[in-house]
Amino acid sequence: MRLKPVIILLTGYARAGKDTFADGFEAANSGSAERVKRTSFANSLKTALGYAVEPFFPNLSYFNEEAKMEDRALLVEFGRAMRRRDRDVFARSLVDTVEAAFNFNPLANVIVTDCRYLNELRYIKASLSYHYRVVTVYIETTGVGAANEEEGLSIGEMFREVAFDHQFYFRQNDAQGIKQEGARIAALYGIR
What we know:
- By secondary structure, the chain is of the alpha/beta class.
- The protein has helices spanning 18-27, 42-53, 65-70, 72-85, 89-104, 118-128, 149-161, 175-188, and strands spanning 6-11, 36-39, 109-112, 133-141, 166-170.
């Protein structure tokens, strides 16, 4: 019997090393991009806000790190507004993205770099467990704290409520160690 592909849900503060961990996870694939799809809950938020500002700033992209950091408060408030209307709005969007990837390549694994809300984690587990082995990973790095109050509250709730499959605690500036752990987790789940 073939094992299901995995969906890795990374939890941790902004700048804790989640994307670096994902880099290591992807690198373990020997260059086969078809084996891993990287995505995030924030992708749909960045896209939607990009549409909103396009009439004024047609070249502004919130996928650009500098633009994202400059307007971080705007992104946070826009996200809050959308979650007030429907707390699962970003989770549903992510499920649509992952299901499309699964339909395109049912063998591909997925790594989600920003699982920060308990309801979103629960939504993903309820929606995707039939296709994927859902694996939760918590990442913490010395000296990295919450970027804002909302992040502190949501990550705190996650840490109290979730029995993570893997927890990592890194020293500052240990990108190599973070990547190595990402690659180790990929190997643990048979991703090569």
